[in-house]
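Hi F.,

I've been meaning to write this up properly since the lab meeting, where we talked about keeping a consistent format for the predictions we share between groups. The idea is simple: the sequence comes first, exactly as it goes in, then the structure tokens exactly as they come out, then a line or two of notes. No screenshots and no reformatting. I'm using this chain as the first example so we have something concrete to point to.
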Amino acid sequence: MVLNKITLRRAVQLICLLGFLWLFLQTEYRGLDELPYPVSLLFRIDPLAALADLLAPGPFSWALWPALVLLVLTALFGRFFCGWICPLGTTIDGCGKLTGRGAHLRSRSWRKIKYLLLFSLTAASFGGVQLLGLFDPLAIFLRTLTLSLYPAYNLFLNGLFDVSYQHNIPLVSPLLNGLYPVFRDNLMAFFQPSYTLGLFTLLVFFSILLLERVERRFWCKNLCPLGALFGLCSSRALLTRQPDGLCHDCRKCETACRMDAVGEKGQQAGECIECLDCTDYCPQQRVAFTLTGPRPRQQKVDVSRRDLLVSVSAGAVIAPVARIAPDSYKLNPYLIRPPGAVAEAEFLRRCVRCGECMKVCIGQALHPALLDAGTIGLWTPLLIARLGYCEFNCTLCGQVCPTGAIRPLPVEEKRKTIIGLAIFDKNRCLPFARQEECMVCEEHCPTAEKAIVFDEQLVEVGGQVRSLKIPRVLTDRCIGCGICETRCPLDGLSAIRVINEIESRRPESLTREIDPYG
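Output, unedited:
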């Protein structure tokens, strides 16, 4: 029976991980501008995403109600999410033998870091700077899949199927060729994805996995702010472990517990993740988890008033210092947000850096920011039109955003939503710079009435006067989708670029010279 409990927990972990991976794979354009599955479910149950949304301007998004239910369940049954459901925790457990596991740290003071981090980040959010998404384990997991592992997975499969098709390997090729339609339609990207910050994101993820070599579940035990939130909610949970402390004739739990949750003075409040491992390795089978047993002795979290004051003060100082930084829109005129994005200040407070919008973008236009949106905009989505464009009929990014940072838009409204303005660089554009005719930008412009038109001008080329079509952007029609910049035939920097001029549409903005390196 004990063995079955452990097997059940591992089976649930695996099923949840595979379920989240399936939803991740379905966060993809499959021929319809509507996603059939609740692909953002992982963030609908994320209390940190709910906290970020709650502290952001505007009404709370009740699409996140499952996260509130999860907190209630945690208060009743303990920190079970970390031991049974969390995909990052499951990945850490699964990779433990590969990375190697360290011994328990003698000092338990490390574990208070996650509480101090939670208090500091919450205080900063109160002050208008939301950084919870940078440390949210669910955002870290999905972000790594989107930006790093999924592109590598697609590249491998594409290469495998290409080799099979080209070389026609006996027995192997017929099997792979038969599987290709299934993978293409359900388990692969519509286009081969590639993103900026892919390597950096992967290194951060690997660093978390390698912390296992320092101590088992180091991230979950010492650094995870979501674990800290669950720990606070579960400190008086009904589901309790019996006995509540170490047995004097054994003490095996002291070294075998992955969370180091049991000590001589009793169970560490909020640290047990209900993994049930101790019911397995107890030689006398004394350990059990019950809902009706006596209240366990609780060893309080070692967070002093001074620690609490320092952490809250740090968050309170971070917020105003970050907010008085120069406006990112002024520093970076090429900072373009997805269509439907709320105002920049609110966007930065709602976005949890999950990467869902980047994953689902058909035109491969959305990429994570490094310092493009300021120091607090790391991993937020921005449109890089030279790499991809915003598909005219696509509304998927608004469908997957879990916190309302990107509003869902009907197709008709999306087609009219302005995200930027195209301008010409007359130093590079062929008609301006070389008196050579080029109509690529106008041909690809998707608006009902073309936002790019031509003016006939007489120019002298090689001693001969001839008529030349000079392109011009109509500001009342351009929505800034970026397809003109993507399709510009010049190598390197495009001759037409999209800037974040949204509110002001001045007549002199039709065609202007720009600094190519600005």
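Notes:
The longest strand covers residues 452-461.
Residues 504-518 have pLDDT under 50 and may be disordered.

If this format works for you, I'll send the rest the same way.

G.
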